[in-house]
Amino acid sequence: EFLLFTSDKNGSDEIRMTQENIAVHVNSAREVVARMLKLFASDGLVEVKRGAIVIKDRKGLEEIAG
Predict the structure, then answer these.
(1) Running DSSP on this structure, what letter comes out for residue 43?
(2) Sequence-ordered alpha helix ranges (H) in 1-66
(3) Which of 35, 52, 61, 65 could be a cystine partner for 1, CB 3.0 to 4.6 Å?
């Protein structure tokens, strides 16, 4: 949900945030965020770059978010 919200707010599928920044925003540990992003990347939903996450499959993320 956070990735979709942030993408909509910024008007871009590229979210320029570190995993640590995302963890702070969602009140979680960076390791948990890293694990989830790795899972999303392996499913083709996102691409993880240095300092950014790019949404590749918005519909897939929306389905997970419910």
Answers:
(1) T
(2) 2-10, 19-25, 30-42, 58-65
(3) 65
